[in-house]
Structure formats: structure tokens, C-alpha cells
Design goal:
Strand order of the largest sheet: 1-2-5
Strand content: 25-35%
Order of helices and strands: HEEEEE
Structural class: mainly beta
Oligomer: single chain
């Protein structure tokens, strides 16, 4: 591989229990053929399916903790 090919690679980071972080901007193609675009420099793609803003992450994967009485 040459240096020019390496510079075209897109960085993707998988967050355990969270989203997949992709260097943006991105164009995401959904199974139905529709597209979602984001111009952000880093885009969080939902990996759990709970996001109300799917395919973009809205942090719905985070577990809610009940407060305990002190």
C-alpha cells in the first residue's frame, strides 16, 4: 500500500456498550436505501438500535441508575 491509499482510510472506533464512532462527514445508507448525512467531524452511529434518532446515536444505550437513599 502506498501513503496515498492510507490517507484515504476512514477511522472507525467501536465503543464497548456504546456507539460506533466514525470520522465524518458521513453518508449512511440504510437498508431501505434511504440516506442520512452528517457533516460533523466525528459521528456516533447507533449500535444498540434504541436511538430515537437512529442511525445516529442519542445515548439511549446508557443504563439509567436509580438513586439510592443515603
Amino acid at each position: 500500500m502506498t501513503g496515498t491509499q492510507d490517507s484515504k482510510r476512514t477511522a472507525v472506533r467501536v465503543v464497548r456498550g456504546g456507539p460506533v464512532l466514525v470520522e465524518g462527514p458521513v453518508d449512511i445508507e440504510l437498508p431501505d436505501g434511504s440516506h442520512v448525512q452528517s457533516d460533523r467531524f466525528m459521528v456516533a452511529v447507533c449500535a444498540c438500535g434504541r436511538s430515537k434518532n437512529y442511525p445516529l446515536c442519542d445515548t439511549s444505550h446508557r443504563k439509567r441508575r436509580k438513586r439510592t437513599a443515603d
